[in-house]
Design goal:
The complex is a heterodimer of chains A (about 350) and B (about 190). Chain A is mainly alpha-helical. Chain A is built from 17 helices and five strands. Chain A folds into three domains: about 70 residues, no CATH class; about 170 residues, no CATH class; about 70 residues, Alpha-Beta Plaits, CATH 3.30.70. The longest helix of chain A is centred in the N-terminal third of the chain and has 31 residues. Chain B starts with a helix and ends with a strand. Chain B is elongated. The model of chain B has no long low-confidence stretch (mean pLDDT about 85). Chain B is of the alpha+beta class and about 190 residues long. Chain B has one domain. Classes of the chains: A mainly alpha (about 350), B alpha+beta (about 190). Chains A and B meet through helix 1, strand 2, helix 4, helix 5 and helix 9 of A and helix 1, helix 2, helix 3 and strand 1 of B.
Chain lengths: ~350, ~190
């Protein structure tokens, strides 16, 4: 028996941190429009004119922000926007897809904007499609939706589990960019769930109602429920396609430690993107969400720093198939003594 | 693989060639009279630069910026606009500051840069509707103007005269006490 590699013990808790991050991003997305509304009240000195419910909102926001700001009308501008494009304490960050689709729509390079996508691009080169698993507010709702589907199945309703071609999303990305180019308008923003969601929450809170995008988003949720689990992210999302392409040679990736694996296939069952960790099939679409690491009962999955996946390593050494084969290959007298 | 790249490049080339033609054919705007936020670049360029992030509206302390649904065509979907009669722009210039994509250019909040860079439109007075021109002294539009005596001056009976320095913020149209309004912004889409 040779020494087995144990993954760093914190890796299996990363999934909890991920849920925390997703929830934080989502709640910020809801909170920011409320803060904006509050700011406008402050700027207008309008407290006395507000309806009682609005005054309640004002009081809540004041209580929430008072410890952090002295002048709400100005200081609360520090964090603005959404995950499509936002402002974080003076640092402007944008989705690489926003940059790319602007290039397609205008057919020129506007450097100040391209630079805002630089940090996300670098992170994607390092961590692959991490945005999809760790930040995307739509992902948060889609994952809850997956859990909801489990609930539905438990009470006997059947949910969609079709397998489509995952290359289809690259086609969507291409079509979106070509359409942006043809219309000279950033059309991609209308079919990219996190961008849609960021806007729609803002519309609902600050402008008094959802827009057309809410219908689109509801449709994607239904698609996930009725056609394919996490179907939009897996097969259709143009942003996911771009992130996958950028993350193809990511340095940080989840890998299987074959010595620890017992072929239980829990990783394949938990994988939201329908990948194949059991057979070392991570590919460019793994979003490093670490759900498989968290679920693995034998510590057989860990993070590695390498630019490509390991080829299929065969059945796990703790599994029946491997041990059966070992027994057949070892001479009979050794087996008798053992 | 090679064939695939070839087909791909053909597709991209065809798209690039068809783009100007398609732009000429597709209707760009409807009959809605709207303004773009202050500092917005010319309409065609604006549509290609705006990424629909909604930050301009979120920065607007006056909440005058709304967003298009399908009403102004697919290419305008989710882009910001201002209907001056509903709410004018107070020229705080915060939207240009937050706009990441260069669709709204950042402009310093001082007279010269604003006169230079803001081209939302220009106010036009309808003398048949304007109270001051009917002999009833009013002057509300003049008092609402953030660029008093620069963009708008008053004569006898507070009769408004819009100069060519008007940037089209729409506060005069918003404040006009006539119904329908006697002063309107004619938008400048560049």
């Amino acid at each position: 028996m040779h020494a087995t590699r144990k993954p760093f013990f914190l890796w299996r808790h990363l999934n909890k941190l991920r849920w925390l991050t997703l929830a934080t991003v989502f709640s910020m997305l809801v909170l920011l429009p409320f803060l904006h509304v509050y700011q406008t009240y402050v700027a207008a000195h309008a407290y006395d004119l507000l309806a009682p419910q609005e005054q309640e909102l004002y009081d809540t926001m004041e209580a929430l922000t008072a410890p952090f700001v002295t002048d709400p009308a100005e200081d609360l501008d520090a964090v603005k926007g959404n995950t499509w494009s936002g402002n974080l304490f003076g640092l402007k960050l944008s989705d690489p897809l926003a940059a790319l689709s602007q290039v397609a729509a205008g057919m020129n390079l506007y450097t100040p904007f391209l630079l805002t996508a630089l940090i996300p691009v670098v992170f994607t080169l390092l961590f692959g499609r991490f945005y999809c698993g760790w930040i995307c507010p739509a992902s948060f709702l889609y994952e809850l939706n997956s859990n909801f589907a489990i609930l539905l199945r438990r009470i006997g309703l059947s949910t969609g589990h079709r397998k489509l071609d995952r290359r289809f999303k690259y086609l969507v990305l291409g079509a979106g960019l070509v359409l942006s180019m043809l219309t000279g308008s950033v059309i991609v923003a209308a079919i990219y769930p996190p961008a849609v969601l960021g806007r729609e929450i803002y519309y609902a809170v600050a402008l008094g109602g959802f827009g057309a995008g809410a219908v689109f988003f509801a449709a994607t949720m239904l698609f996930d429920l009725m056609v394919a689990q996490r179907g939009f992210c897996r097969y259709l999302c143009p942003g996911g396609a771009l992130y996958s392409l950028l993350g193809r040679y990511r340095l940080v990736r989840v890998q299987r430690v074959v010595e620890n694996c017992n072929d239980c296939a829990k990783c394949n069952a938990i994988c939201e993107f329908g990948l194949d960790p059991l057979r070392d099939g991570f590919g460019q679409e793994c979003n490093n969400c670490a759900a498989c690491i968290a679920v693995c009962p034998t510590d057989a999955l860990t993070f590695e720093i390498r630019p490509s996946d390991i080829a299929y390593q065969g059945p796990g050494h703790l599994g029946k198939r491997y041990q059966h084969r070992q027994r057949r290959e070892t001479p009979p007298e050794v087996e008798a003594t053992a | 693989m090679q064939r695939r790249t070839f087909i791909k490049s053909i597709g991209i080339a065809a798209g690039a060639a068809a783009a100007p033609a398609a732009r000429a054919v597709l209707p760009v705007r409807s009959s809605i009279r709207y303004l773009r936020p202050p500092g917005a670049v010319a309409e065609d360029e604006f549509l290609s630069r705006c990424i629909r992030c909604g930050q301009c509206g979120e920065a607007c302390p006056n909440r005058c910026i709304s967003y298009f649904g399908m009403g102004n065509g697919l290419s305008s979907l989710d882009t910001p606009y201002i209907i001056p009669r509903e709410k004018g722009c107070i020229l705080c210039m915060k939207c240009g500051e937050v706009c990441p994509s260069g669709a709204i250019q950042p402009i310093v909040r001082e007279l010269e840069p604003i006169l230079e860079g803001v081209r939302m439109g220009r106010a036009v007075v309808d003398k048949r509707l304007c109270l001051s021109y009917q002999g009833k002294t009013c002057g509300v539009c003049y008092r609402a103007c953030p660029l008093q005596d620069v963009a708008i001056t008053v004569g006898m009976l507070e009769q408004p005269h819009v100069t060519d320095k008007c940037v089209g913020c729409g506060l005069c149209e918003r404040s006009c006490i006539q119904m329908p309004q006697a002063i309107r912004i004619v938008p400048n889409y560049g």
